[in-house]
């Protein structure tokens, strides 16, 4: 893990505080209130979702491939009574059995995985029939002018934001992986650079 990776993990919550307060917190609460049964969260980061999980969870697995993030996550988890554990694993290689989860959660993750198509195939594999993927992701802009800026600044964004691809067509990738999107809201990631403003929030079923 690079020095920048450790610094990024240490400063992530502070950098994102404005966006969390103005937009993300509300979406996290609305989505995570509903989860129940066996749940897997992909790329748990520093654990910002932890306060929003309800009491209907039987087992919560939180995966995180980056050691500095996983350490922050583990420390935060100690302050909660959730039936949860952290597993250090990449989203493209999840070490769990087929059709073993009721819900999967992905919040600001599919922009950073190396292979989003493979990651979504893994999530699809792990969900039970009629299981749900709940997502909050920033995506490629539908506004052509902003999309061009996303492309121009893509290389800088990947380096500065530690692997974040601001111009991915994530909604299309979710559908291409075999999910049926049943809920979708478009929003803006406020208190952040314009190239990461376009936000999608919703739920997708595994048939």
Description:
This protein is of the alpha/beta class. It has a single domain (3-205), classed as Vaccinia Virus protein VP39 (Rossmann fold, 3-Layer(aba) Sandwich). 36% of the residues lie in helices and 26% in strands. It is built from seven helices and seven strands. The chain has helices at residues 3-15, 17-32, 67-77, 116-126, 144-152, 154-160, 170-176; strands at 37-42, 57-63, 84-87, 101-107, 127-138, 180-188, 198-205. A seven-stranded mixed sheet has the order 3-2-1-4-5-7-6, with helices on both faces.
Shape: globular
Total number of distinct structural domains: 1
Please identify the structural class as seen in this structure.
alpha/beta
How many distinct helices?
Answer: 7
Q: So, CATH architecture?
A: 3-Layer(aba) Sandwich
- What is the rounded Rg? 16 Å
Percentage of β-strand residues: 25-35%
Describe the main β-sheet briefly.
7 strands, mixed
CATH topology: Rossmann fold
Q: How many beta strands in the DSSP annotation?
A: 7
Strand order of the largest sheet: 3-2-1-4-5-7-6
| Average pLDDT | 96
CATH superfamily: Vaccinia Virus protein VP39
Give the N-terminus to C-terminus distance in angstroms.
Answer: 38 Å
Low-confidence stretches: none
The H/E string reads HHEEHEEHEHHHEE
């Amino acid at each position: 893990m690079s020095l920048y990776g450790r610094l990024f993990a240490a400063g992530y919550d502070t950098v994102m505080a404005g966006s969390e307060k103005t937009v993300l917190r509300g979406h996290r609460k609305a989505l995570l209130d509903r989860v129940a049964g066996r749940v897997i969260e992909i790329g748990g980061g520093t654990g910002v979702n932890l306060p929003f999980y309800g009491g209907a969870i039987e087992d919560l697995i939180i995966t995180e491939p980056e050691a500095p993030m996983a350490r922050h996550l583990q420390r935060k988890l100690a302050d909660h009574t959730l039936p949860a554990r952290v597993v250090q694993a990449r989203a493209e290689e999840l070490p769990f059995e087929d059709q073993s989860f009721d819900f999967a959660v992905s919040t600001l993750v599919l922009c950073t995985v190396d292979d989003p198509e493979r990651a979504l195939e893994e999530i699809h594999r792990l969900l039970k029939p009629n299981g749900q993927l709940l997502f909050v992701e920033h995506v490629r802009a539908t506004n052509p002018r902003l999309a061009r800026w996303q492309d121009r600044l893509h290389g800088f964004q990947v380096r500065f934001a530690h692997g974040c691809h601001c111009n991915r067509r994530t909604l299309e990738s979710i559908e291409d992986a075999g999910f049926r999107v049943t809920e979708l809201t478009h929003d803006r990631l406020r208190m952040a650079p314009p190239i990461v403003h376009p936000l999608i929030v919703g739920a997708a079923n595994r048939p």
